[in-house]
Amino acid sequence: MKIVAKTDKGVVRDNNQDAYAVGEFSDEVVWSVVCDGMGGAAGGNIASELAVKVISEKINACYREKMRDSSIKNMLDSALTAANIEVYDFADAQPKLRGMGTTVVCAIVRDNQAYIAHAGDSRAYIFNNGSVHQITTDHSLVQDLVNRGKLTVEEAENHPNKNLITRAVGVDKEIDIDFCQVDLDDEDTLLLCTDGLSNYVSNDEMIELMSDGKHYAFADRLVKKANENGGGDNITVVIISK
Fold first, then answer.
1. Residue 151 CA from chain centroid, whole number
2. What is the pLDDT of residues 45-91, one digit of tens each?
3. What does the pLDDT read at residue 160?
4. Structure pTM?
5. 174 C-beta neighbours (distance < 10 Å), count
């Protein structure tokens, strides 16, 4: 397995409130976590970095070879729940940080399976053979309106409230986490990213930038394109491929 990653503050923002970590347990088992902090410059940085630290530590401490699918799901759920408690308690103890939080998308890839847990609007995509498919569903006000038939997908893309999310790590005492397990073909590439990429780089542009199979260059290219298209937010990209 190969992992490439890049984070960038973008063109507009003064600092980077995104955070990420990657790791591997063997040649065939890798993991990553990507977070996008919110709650002011200090709060966003703290929330995303703390969540990445807690989740990474839990995965490294708890993962075992030949874990059952259900055990991996439970491990990711426990890791994200622990991060939620840590971020919430940290903010609750410091009034100036109250309300801080972070999105999260986390993946473990093993034996042609991707195990993905997420909360918020950071996303996971699969790229294969000239197509890209979003496999997470945003926890956002606009996505809720799409789900209820109040907005079309096209209307949602440019909606003024697109950045309002309905779930995040650390905002409430408890968190609802979505989990999915996806089959991966040998030619599939898994992409994890914050909305600094998805809001500034279209699916067609992703396909164009990833179609030559040069996986080592994908993260750099995608971040560069997001900045060329305005770079209005922090950008984080993690690419996992065989």
1. 24
2. 999 999 999 999 999 999 999 899 999 999 999 999 999 999 999 99
3. 65
4. 0.94
5. 8
CA-based R_g, the chain, Å: 17
Q: If you search the block for the tokens 């298209």, which residue do you land on?
A: 229
Please list, in sequence order, all residues whose beta carbon lies within 8 angstroms of the beta carbon of residue 149, skipping any fewer than 6 positions away.
none
**Nearest CA-CA partner of 181 in 68, 103, 80:** 68
Distance CA 206, CA 151 (A): 24
Crossing angle (nearest 10°) for helices 69-92 and 40-62: 150
pLDDT (tens digit, 9 = 90+) per residue, 5-50?
999 999 999 999 999 999 999 878 999 999 999 976 678 999 999 9
C-alpha to C-alpha distance for 134 and 216, rounded to whole angstroms: 21
- Angstrom distance (rounded) from CA 116 to CA 105: 7
What is the rounded distance in angstroms from the CA atom of residue 118 to the CA atom of residue 34?
Answer: 9
